[in-house]
Amino acid sequence: MHAYSLDRPERLRAHLAAQRRLYEVRPDCQGGQHWQTVSSQDRHAFEPSSELPPFSAKSFFFGERELLFRFDGGQFYSALPQVVPQVLFGLHACDLQAVAYQDQFFAQDAHYQARRQATLLVGLDCLHSCNGGFCSVLGSGPAVQAQTADLILLPPAEAGADWGLLAASAAGQQALHGLDLASAHADWPAQRQANEARVRAEQGSQEDIIEGIARLNLQAIDDSTWEALGLRCLGCSGCTSVCPTCSCFAPLDRAEGQGGALRERVWDSCLYQGFQQEASGHNPSATAGQRVQRFWTHKFGEDFRQRFDSYGCVGCGRCDRVCPGSIGVHGVMHKVVQP
Amino acid sequence: MIDSTPRRLHLLEQYEDGEDSRHFSLRIEQPAASDLAAKAGQFFMLTLPGVGEAPFTYVSLPDAQGCFTALVRRAGRLTQALFDQPAGSVLGYRGPFGHGWPLFFNAQPLLVVAGGCGLAPLAGVIEQASRQAMPARLSVIYGARHSGAQVLGRERARWQQTLPFIETFDQAAPGQRQGTPLLHLDEVFAAGPPAALLCCGPEPLMRASAEACLQRGLRADRIWLSLERRMHCADGLCGHCYLGSSYVCQDGPTYRYDRYLQLLGRSSPISQAPPALFC
Ligand SMILES: Cc1cc2nc3c(=O)[nH]c(=O)nc-3n(C[C@H](O)[C@H](O)[C@H](O)COP(=O)(O)OP(=O)(O)OC[C@H]3O[C@@H](n4cnc5c(N)ncnc54)[C@H](O)[C@@H]3O)c2cc1C
Ligand code: SF4
Ligand code: FES
User: Fold this and answer.
1) Which of A155, A160, A159, A158 is nearest to A184 (CA)?
2) pLDDT at A31 over 90
3) Which one-letter DSSP state was computed for residue B60?
4) What is the pLDDT of residue B279?
5) In this complex, which of B230, B237, B265 lies closest to A277 when CB atoms are compared?
6) Is B158 helix (H, G, I), strand (E, B) or coil?
């Protein structure tokens, strides 16, 4: 992994935007933040927020609505997405870990892989914890893990100083071609460690999360606790939409004129009452408590951790922010530990 | 890579087979080697273009021409629309999916318990046993709400010639056996305790049958169930068919009972009385 010194991240951004369609998180005028395209001519300073954008990179690869095939009345035609080379600029470690998790889950999914393989990922180390994040206890951050990104931006400790840039993959190294960069100062690993220690201290020990995971896997949480949590679930799908590792979907079939038809798939949510409803009327997860339990078992269950070699939760804290019933990750884990 | 685009499937014919179900003859256009290797207990995904897609089990497995049969119960939008399709319609097919039944035909007696439409996934096993040299080694107890709710009429007529085949009814007519299959287990066990149970039907019936067999000395690792779960992708991705950490479309639909209990997160069998045994 080669380390470079970068006078201005905007120079790298313009270089990459000249090769590919580049997306960066930008503030809107209403206090929100969104992924937006940025051209190679763009003059805005790269000023990443220490707060995560409301939406992760999930929908870039796992489309919220995706055409699967068309039928013309006689034949079926598969529909793969039209992709253009793209780059996501400034992804935080947790969101990159989530992409790595989804890469495994969707390893055989042609639609996901078509989009993913056309994408260069530029990560960004965090100097401070976001509000409510706990990546440091799950091992998903705050330093970007080399195997999850192509390039890694290391912000300077003081304003005005040079940035660091790590080439973490062959594709990342190749994308730098033509950009004249000096090697980084030798102290960059120490700086990364200092950043990590600072974020870890800001996030604290997160006892509820650690104890909650243990209790969940010991099956030490009784049904009444889950049902009490379920009472607060409105089935709104907020958590499953913002969660960077949620991946459930449903098909949507539609007839088109002349005997034609198509199938799309759309994001679904395991917290919807009818998610497992069978045609016979039987519903194996009929209560909201069972569905809430399912969601958290999927994030923290040991069987899933073994399968993916990491938890399904990356500690981004988005569900805490979005849940109207206060049963995001900290809400649930607190109740589970102190019922 | 997974291709979720269906292949062409031709509807050859359909006939009434039970009061709310029909028996379909279907043909896969250009069957692949994997179609011809399908096993009893596996399933396929049937698409009715513009309407939807749903899982169904093979009653008879695809032959060299890709022809097979399936039993479909009217349950909702897709199945109703399927009943309305004329012969010659072009449908969509994906499959085969999941794991079939373990097939061990030896000198040991085997018990099949089926409820309602749950007879369909077991048809391949019964058919094979009825052709073995010692067919009487496999016994069937088949429960239905009443005789109109029974399925696979032609097949049953054939099997009854070669196998011990007990039929039970929730609402029995004179001369019929009253009660659920559980009431008739002792009779089968008295004739020779089975070495294994294969069971398919509504989940409460399967649990109750498994427990009744456990109580009669059969080990949990000799009991197999075929589970129904809502399924949409059959590729282990859409998430709908979960059973604990397992996806029924990939790991099932047949599960050994001890594994099933483990996935439910229970160390001991569930012993609550089933509310209703039949769909
Ligand atoms: C492995 C496997 C094998 C199977 N084999 C067979 C077989 O051989 N033969 C057979 O007849 N059936 C079989 N089934 C069941 C079959 O797949 C269903 O009966 C079929 O999907 C019904 O489709 P439908 O469109 O007609 O019903 P739908 O219209 O989809 O549903 C009917 C009812 O289901 C419920 N429902 C559906 N969607 C929702 C929702 N989003 N929210 C709430 N409730 C909902 C409602 O109560 C609705 O009225 C099998 C199932 C599995 C999993
Ligand atoms: S469960 Fe919550 S905290 Fe964990 S990754 Fe999903 S949204 Fe983020
Ligand atoms: S049917 Fe989609 S995961 Fe099993």
Assistant:
1) A155
2) no
3) B
4) 46
5) B230
6) helix
Q: How confident is the model at residue A24 (pLDDT cuts 50, 70, 90)?
A: very high
pLDDT band at A339 (very low <50, low <70, confident <90, very high): confident
Percentage of chain A modeled with pLDDT above 90 = 91
Among chain A residues, CA nearest to B277: A282
Residue whose CA is at the smallest distance from ligand 2 atom 1: A313
- Chain A hits for B244, CB-CB cut-off 8 Å, are 297, 303
Above 70 in pLDDT, residue A166? Answer: yes
Asked if ipTM goes beyond 0.90, one says yes
Runs of H (alpha helix) within A89-187: 93-105, 110-117, 135-138, 170-175
Report chain B residues whose CB lies below 8 A from the CB of A77. Answer: 5
Given a cut of 50, is residue B271 above it in pLDDT?
Answer: no
B158 alpha carbon to ligand 1 midpoint, in Å? 29
Q: Do domains B7-97 and B110-263 have the same CATH topology?
A: no
Spell out the domain ranges in chain B.
7-97, 110-263
Q: Give the separation between CA A324 and CA A235, rounded to whole angstroms.
A: 10
Average pLDDT, chain B: 92
Residue A114 to residues A96, A109, A126, B4: CA-CA distances in angstroms? Answer: 18, 9, 29, 15
Substitution candidate for ligand 2 out of A206, A245, A267, A330 with most atoms within 8 A of CB: A245
Measure the CA angle with vertex A39, ends A35 and A42; round to 5°.
Answer: 100
- Select from B126, B264, B266 the least CA-distant residue to B199: B126
Q: What is the pTM of this model?
A: 0.94
Query: What does the alpha-carbon distance between residue A79 and residue A263 come to, in Å, rounded to a whole number?
Result: 10
Domain B110-263: top CATH class: alpha beta
For B201-246, write each residue's pLDDT tens digit.
999 999 999 999 999 999 999 999 999 999 999 999 999 999 999 9
Between CA B246 and CA B253 the distance in angstroms is 10
Q: How far is CA B186 from the centre of its chain?
A: 23
Considering only the beta carbons, identify the residue of A249, A277, A281 that sits closest to B238: A249
Judge contact between A143 and A129, C-beta under 8 A: no
d(CA B238, CA B205): 27
Q: Which residues of B are annotated as a binding site for [2Fe-2S] cluster?
A: 233, 238, 241, 249
Q: Two tokens at B124?
A: 């391949």
Using only the alpha carbons of chain B, give its radius of gyration.
18
Amino acid at position A48, single letter: P
Q: How far is the C-alpha of B123 from the C-alpha of B159, rounded, in Å?
A: 10
Q: Could you please state the CATH topology (level 3) that the domain comprising B7-97 is classified under.
A: Elongation Factor Tu (Ef-tu); domain 3 (2.40.30)
The 10 Å Cβ neighbour count of residue A197 is: 12
Residue B274: predicted pLDDT:
46
Are the C-beta atoms of A12 and A165 separated by less than 8 Å? Answer: yes
* C-beta separation of B116 from B151 below 8 A: yes
Summarised one tens digit per residue, pLDDT across range B105-148 is 666 889 999 999 999 999 999 998 888 776 668 999 999 999 99
For residue B23, name the pLDDT band (cuts at 50, 70, 90).
very high
